[in-house]
Design a protein that fits this description.
single chain, alpha/beta, CBS-domain, four-stranded mixed β-sheet
């Protein structure tokens, strides 16, 4: 992993669990905890529900027995497995995401890349450009080498 040529498929991905489209908010919450993932897909990947979606739903008084599709985001944002990690980070930051679905050039999900894992990988790059080195200093990240 050298330089900014680091691609998404070089990083370990989280699984991308999928529940039926008729899953309830409660079932999604249970699956998120059980699978230890920040989000999961509904149906054939036509929608995604995140931890934040669950928290907002509960805070707004939604019942856990309601369909998760009412709080889901349709057409999840995805990144190609061969995309540079820097682009994946930019995509997540631009859209306010903590994780993004990784696909293999088609709609089939390979897994999920988290913002934390992607930034950690970038900060570990040996041949670091000045701006990334500055980010490491600003975040006070100490790397074991």
């Amino acid at each position: 992993m050298t330089g900014l040529r680091l691609t998404v498929h070089e990083l370990p991905l989280l699984p991308t669990p999928c529940l039926p489209a008729d899953a309830t908010i409660g079932a999604v919450a249970e699956a998120l905890v059980r699978e230890r993932v920040p989000a999961l897909l509904l149906g054939n990947g036509e929608a995604i529900v995140s931890e934040h979606d669950i928290v907002r739903a509960v805070a707004r008084g939604r019942a856990v027995s309601e369909p998760a599709l009412v709080i889901a985001t349709p057409d999840p944002i995805a990144v190609a497995h061969d995309a540079p990690v820097v682009e994946a980070v930019e995509l997540m930051l631009r859209h306010g995401l903590r994780a993004v679905v990784v696909v293999d050039g088609g709609p089939r999900p390979l897994g999920m890349l988290t913002l934390v894992r992607a930034v950690e990988a970038l900060l570990a790059i040996e041949e670091m450009p000045a701006w990334l080195s500055g980010l490491r200093i600003a975040l006070r990240v100490e790397m074991d080498r």
